[in-house]
Structures are given as structure tokens and as C-alpha cells.
Amino acid sequence: MRKRFVIAIDGPGASGKSTTAKLLAKKMKYIYIDTGAMYRACGLCSLEKNIDLKDMKALEKMLDNMEIQIKYSQTGNQIFLNGKDISSRIREADITKLSSEIAVIDIVRKKMVEQQRQIGKDGGVIMDGRDIGTVVFPNADFKFFMIADVETRALRRWKEAKDKGEKISLNDIEKELVWRDRNDSTRDIAPLKQAEDAIAVDTSDMTIQEQVDFILNVIKKGKRRKIYSFICTTLYFFMRVVWRLEIIHKERLESIENCIIAANHISAFDPLFIGAIIPGEIYYLAKAELFKNKLLDKLLKHVNVIPVKRGRIDKGAIRVVNEVLQKGHSIMIFPEGTRKATSVKAGIGKFALQLQKDIRPIFIKNSVDFWKCFFGKKRLQIIIAEKIKAESFSHLEDTKENYRNLASNVMKKILELENEC
Ligand code: DC
Predict the structure, then answer these.
(1) Distance from the alpha carbon of residue 30 to the mean position of ligand 1, in angstroms
(2) 40 lines ligand 1 (CB under 6 A)
(3) Residue 378 near residue 366, CB atoms below 8 Å
(4) What pLDDT, in 10s, does the model give residues 321-356?
């Protein structure tokens, strides 16, 4: 699993890409690459060398002899063309138009894309442009497509120009943006378009901080998801090879969604084993003491474990469980609470009744017999039951007795599954 990501931010001019990308890069200590500046540098080079953009031979020669250097800093990119700092010059109107014109040419794009891939190959990079998520890094870890209405974008550019003391009308800026949008999105090669798996961010009514926070939040969640799936995949491999896992009624796993998963509890590995075989993410409960260990605290949070204080009613944990179920996730609960329990707790019945959620009983066998499984005498078995539909208990009143009865019935169903081994 790669630790440092490639983050692609595409979108039309003045949609907020570069401002957001720069701040994100600073926050994440990543490199920021403004690929638009590279096409701008090509445009400037062709102008300085007086090259006709239809003359492919001359263009090829120009590209072979041209050196674009990007110096990364926390505040942005400094662009050098053959050793000369062109950072300000390339922002002028003539180069803006020329950059869009030169960007439609195949050989120009090939050269730029090659350079961009080289820069981003080890990750730790935030790249903005038009084709980063579609062409340059189609497998980028995160892809965003920033948009904003043209009036907002024109106003942003106009303010920037005014601050720099440039005299240009709002109308002219808007016209230029409309022209460039069309030119960039209708070209044959690598047109400006949203990658299928990119997240669209409409920045029209967002502040810069909101844009940054939105993206950071997506990355944070995605990072957690990647860690979760990495742990599950690795664990599943060991369960198959070392524990000789057998899943009975595996086809029923597919329909596990937004429900309470209820299992017997014989080993500390049970939650991990059950979580690893269920497609998608689920949530778990664990005693709060485990979170005192710093390493465990980090790990458990990454795998969706909710801490529960024992010995009293933990209202905080109950609220989180409610939220998780209401948001459409599934949660695993052991009706007996702990491994050494002698009775069934009412908790599972309370959640299921109050929130009217289906329950999925699961029986786990031999998870305490590592060596016997390892030496082929036993195997880890997990049996999946049909779900207990919420409709089947929806008529019950919200009483403690009903919670307890429902919990006991669920436990009975779990134990009955052993007959199917
Ligand atoms: O992002 P920008 O406005 O600086 O980009 C200038 C031009 O460069 C833009 O109109 C289209 C082109 N471009 C491109 O074709 N592909 C990219 N990845 C980035 C920019």
C-alpha cells in the first residue's frame, strides 16, 4: 500500500484548483504541480521562437531543445524555461490564449504528460490541470473535478488582475474563459472532462477554506478506507492459508448491508475474522480500555471500532451506534457482550427494535484452535444465516422485556447454526 498519494485536481480555468491545491500541498507536505504552467511555458517558447503551431517539425525541434523546470515551494511553483524565470510572464493574456491553443497538439501533450508522470511516480503529489485524472494518472488515489459558474470564475480572475494592477474588463475575462472552456473541452486529445471516478466540487459558493476542508475530509476518509481494506485483505489471506477457513453460505455475504451482525464470541480474533470476510466496511464495538494503548488506539480507529465503557450504560457509545446504523452502515454486536459471558445482554434487541434494523446471525467455530487448524486437524468455520427481517419483530413494543427476548432469540438462532457445520 502506497503511503503517499497521487491527488488529481482537474477543472476549467479559475475554478479554484490551484489555490486549493497549493493550500492542500502545504497542509499535507506534498509537492504541488501546476500542469497548466507547463503548457503556458510551451506557448511562451513557441512565441519567442516564432514557431508556427502548424509546423510539426519546428515544434518537435522546439520540444527537444526546451527545458521546463519547476521549482516547488510552499507558496506555489516557480517556472523556468531554459533557465529563465518565466513565472509572471506566462500569466499574461497572450500566453493564456496561446497555452490553450498549443495544448491541443499531440506531440506537445505527449512530452508534457511524460514529464508529469515522472514527477508524480513516487506519490506525495497534488497535480492540477485538465487531464490529470483521465490521462496522466488514471489510477490516481484521489480525483477531484472542480467547477464553478463562469460569472464567479470571471470575477475571481478580475479581482486577481486588479490586485496586480492590470487593466482588463470583467467582460473580456469572461469571454476569454468561455472561449478557453470550449477549446479545452472540445479538443480530440485529452479534453477537459470529469473522470468517471472523480468527485465533483462546485466551488461557486464555497470559500477557499471550505474547498480545502472538503477535499481533506474526503482524503482522510479514503485513507482510512484504504487501510481498512488492506488489513482485511491481508487477514483474509492468513485465514485461508493458516486457519484453513471455510465459509458456509458464502452467497449470503453479498446481502449484508445496513444491519446488525450478531455472532457468538469465543476468541479475541472473532470480530477481525468476521469483519474480514464481509464485503465492504462494518463497525465494531470494543471495550474502552483497549484504546488506552496508543498503538491500538490508532489501529482500532482505522478499523471502525467504537469504544464502549463497561459496567454502566455508555450513552456516548449508544449514540454512535445509532448514528452508524442510521447512516446506512452495518455494525457487529456480540449478544453475549464478552467472551466469558454466561447470559445474553439486552443491548442488541434494543438497537434492533428501536431502529428497526435487520439482524444477521453468524456462527464462528474453532477460532480458538489455532494450532489444530494450522496442523490440519480442524478448520476455522464461519456460518452465515438468513437475515432476521425487522418486519418480523416490528409489531413488538419498545420494552426492556422485548429487548431481552429478542436478544435471546437471536442468540438461539446463532447457536442453531452449529448444526450446519
Ligand atoms: O490551468 P491553466 O489555466 O494555467 O492552463 C492553461 C491552459 O493549458 C489551459 O487552457 C489548457 C491547458 N492545459 C491542458 O491542456 N492540460 C492540463 N493538464 C493543464 C492545462
Answers:
(1) 21
(2) yes
(3) yes
(4) 999 998 999 999 999 987 877 788 898 999 999 999
Question: Would you say the CB of residue 99 lies under 6 angstroms from ligand 1?
Answer: yes
Does ligand 1 have an atom closer than 6 angstroms to the CB of 130?
yes
Instruction: Tell the residue nearest (CA) to atom 4 of ligand 1.
Output: 36
The model carries a pTM of 0.80
Alpha carbon of 101 to those of 42, 57, 91, 213: distances in Å? 10, 17, 15, 34
In sequence order, which residues have a C-beta less than 8 Å from that of residue 221 and are 6 or more positions away?
A: none
Q: What is the CATH number of the domain that holds 70?
A: 3.40.50.300
Kindly state whether residues 60 and 195 are assigned to the same domain.
Answer: yes
Question: What is the spatial distance between Cα 164 and Cα 197, in angstroms, rounded to a whole number?
Answer: 37
C-alpha–C-alpha distance, residues 282 and 260, integer Å: 10
How far is the centre of ligand 1, averaged over its atoms, from the C-alpha of 39 (Å)?
6
Residue 380, domain CATH: 3.40.1130.10
Q: Where do the DSSP E strands lie in 165-324?
A: 199-202, 246-248, 260-263, 283-287, 305-308
